[in-house]
Amino acid sequence: MPKLQLTTTAAVVTEVKLAPQARKMLLERFEEHEKLAKVVKAAQGTKKKPGRMRRIADEVQELFRAEKQGKALLAGTALNEHRVKLVMGTRKVFDQMGFMKKHGLTQEDFDEFTEEVDSEPYVKISHGKDDDE
User: Fold this and answer.
1) Residue at 82 is within a domain
2) Residue 79: φ, ψ to 5°
3) Total domains, the chain
4) Spatial distance between the Cα atoms of 107 and 114, rounded to a whole number of angstroms
5) DSSP string computed for 53-96
6) Element (DSSP H or E) covering residue 39
7) φ and ψ of 85, to 5 deg
């Protein structure tokens, strides 16, 4: 007779304490961002976000800083159906002068002069369960 196996999944939940006014402001910003995201998605002709969406992200980041909850922003936080996270990334930069001095045309030479550089951090705001915007 086969044995049944039980599988469990555990999630770590950290509670973030925000002042009631800050919580209300965050909800307002998230709702405004969600409306703008729907407009941008409906347009489908542009990938560039409107300036107000970028300003909302800056305001959200500043609210977390003011409440001294920067770690919560780095780890990712959910408020109702909205999620927010500070995304830190890297990018690679090609050292063209070094490559030219080397005069090599192989992939190994290209890789030797390619270095990884931190990119500018940005705040990612998501809405709903399935939305990746």
Assistant:
1) yes
2) -135, 110
3) 1
4) 11
5) HHHHHHHHHHHHHHTT-HHHHHH-EEETTEEEEEE--EEEEE-H
6) helix 20-43
7) -155, 140
- Can you give the pTM of this predicted structure? 0.60
pLDDT per residue as tens digits for the range 30-87: 999 888 888 888 777 666 677 888 899 999 999 989 988 888 888 888 888 888 898 8
Tokens for 95, please give them: 């050292």
Q: Is residue 50 part of a domain?
A: yes
Quick one: CA torsion of 113, 120, 90, 16, rounded to 10 degrees? 160
Residue 126: left if φ>0, alpha if ψ -120 to 50, beta else—which one? beta
Contact 127, 34 (CB under 8 A): yes
Q: Please give the backbone phi and psi of residue 76, each rounded to the nearest 5 degrees, phi first.
A: 100, 135
Residue 55 is part of which domain span?
A: 20-88+122-127
Residue 113 belongs to a domain = no
Residue 58 CA, distance from chain mean position: 12
Amino acid at 15: E
